[in-house]
Design a protein that fits this description.
Distance between the termini: 54 Å
Mean pLDDT: 88
Low-confidence stretches: none
Number of strands: 7
Strand content: 15-25%
Structural class: alpha+beta
Number of helices: 5
Radius of gyration: 18 Å
Amino acid sequence: FTSADIYLATASFGQNFKITPIQHMRALCAVANGGYLVTPHVVQTITDNSGNIIESTTTSQSRQVVSTEVCDTISKILEEGVSVAGGARNAYVAGYRIAAKTGTSEKIGDSDRDDAYICSCVAYAPAESPAVCALIMVDEPTKGTLYGSVVAAPYVAKLMETILPHLGIEAVYS
């Protein structure tokens, strides 16, 4: 087998991908906003000592890469993975609809260890009207169960539990 054959075989289930966290987040955000790619920004505004805005960035959409209908279906599946005891159930936060996907990827040829993994959880919330997106990645965890659902998803839950109320998004218990 050639390395191209191995890559093709393992790409179908997400092993050894070479994307950056920003690329990962940008792809998820495209799903969250109906299929449109958005240019990522690290800083939204710069203010002076008095709180006056000196500079701000604006969100710009470049193009639609997935249909809105497909994004709605994916969002529903991602949310059910959290709320209906799916693989991302550890990202659950009572009162909030969280859409999340966990990942556990082997690091092939990129580590001194034979059992090296990257465990992750990427999420957005509220699923019905996304306001925040988050990615937690743990590079080469060494203790316990080495799955994104166990290693990273609980931290996504804690993050969302803190951020959503801070943004003024109230929990809905229905």
